[in-house]
DNA sequence: GTAAAATCCTGCACTTACTGCAAGTTTGCA
DNA sequence: TGCAAACTTGCAGTAAGTGCAGGATTTTAC
């Protein structure tokens, strides 16, 4: 996973309380349901004051689906690090697969819990998408940089949004089927690269 | 637009208060900013009690980006109404373009206001996406029905999500460039159909 | 190593969001 | 006309979320 070697005590503590709050939120909501868990409960479980909770998250839902503030830059770097002979779409594909592998290797159970919680509380879909949106911005920046177009051009925007769509579909299917996330994501990205051509009829 | 001929007094009044609340919300937020407008203000402007507001919308943000409850079924019907000799992706393309044309012809200024508000308050992106998500569900249902696959198969899910992505990109660009929404949406959908192939370099 | 500066945590007070309930009012229907 | 269903409203209460100021902790500079 991500290493945080040379980092002050203060930053380390901040990271700790942030993940403590996030984990407590997911665990408590998975157990008791979204609206039977208060910010006070979460704060108590993480051993900080309720007021401090709001120094880290904008609300309960942000704590559950906390947008990892480092994921965006990391994804952008992965896109730029792909071999130059890959097409842009292929580079995005590889970057996404790498990120998923790294993230899952790290926190597998946490992600499964999160998906279970989202399934039980569709309200959270909003936060899930907007969190993905922040990620998407960094992804678009990386794509634009790699391809030499402005970040507000149609191509980077669309490739980023389509990759995000493929990701969401893969995660959705992952939570309802037993297939590995890697395979589902690869399948979706391939379908996208084929121009969403007619699928094989299976009748 | 949509005609509501044979409809009781009661349903007509409900529609009226709903749109009154929605319009008031957009107008007030555009003028004073999102967090300088309370639910009480919106209710007063629409001439109903604050308590009634919550009978129509789950919150301030839902009122601004109110998901039109009829848009989903309408879009689904459009997909199914396309000529049978069109590919599925092409049918989705035509359905979306039709819907955009109809919607804009109806409420052009309202949509422009909405987009301005969203640009000024990125928090609303969450609701915008989740609203689009509800729409997407109906779209996916239509696609699945047309293509004869279950609605939780990868192909319908991905085509729906990708179409949603194209739509969001087109709307985003529409609010920052002066080009017609129809053209921007068509461009994005074409790019998608081409498998997101490398764009024309313009150096 | 110590003092000053920066940053973080916390409690308090306050506004707003949101929900259940029960009563009153309006509409639909026979 | 009169009954049933649906809509609106006020009230009361819980929880969310924010500004502020004081105290504690870490960092930086000397």
UniProtKB/TrEMBL annotation, chains A, B:
PROSITE patterns assigned: HTH_TETR_1, HTH_TETR_2
Residues of the HTH tetR-type domain: 15-75
Keywords, alphabetical: DNA-binding, Transcription, Transcription regulation
InterPro entries: DNA-bd_HTH_TetR-type_CS (IPR023772), Homeodomain-like_sf (IPR009057), HTH-type_TetR-like_transc_reg (IPR050109), HTH_TetR (IPR001647), MftR_C (IPR041347)
Pfam family, one: TetR_C_14
Top-level taxon: Bacteria
Gene3D superfamilies membership: Homeodomain-like, Tetracycline Repressor, domain 2
Coiled coil: none
Name this polypeptide is given: TetR family transcriptional regulator
Lineage: Bacteria, Bacillati, Actinomycetota, Actinomycetes, Pseudonocardiales
